[in-house]
Amino acid sequence: MGYKIKVLENIMYLIPSKKMTLTEAQHLGKAVFPFIGGHIEELKIDMSNVIFIDCRGLSFLVNLHKKIAIGRGKMVITNVNGFVKEVFEVTKLVNLFQIL
Predict the structure, then answer these.
(1) Domain STAS: where (predicted)?
(2) Could you tell me which CATH number the domain at 4-99 has?
């Protein structure tokens, strides 16, 4: 668990650690989900540190996207590269997420 979260007004900034696996997804969920649906209108996820993501990490991102969309919020993922970028492309999540 080396993630960082910062909330400024109605924007949440999330920087996950190197590996988004089951354990990391569980910890991130406990930290992030209570904010979503409240006053958070935009979630910005900086994936620059992430070198590995498994199905639980992907599931966390999909569920997060769904939850923020219900509240008419926006989720943006930035700095995706390497293995993680390939996983997003193969799973077609590049069509679901806004990736910059």
Answers:
(1) 1-100
(2) 3.30.750.24
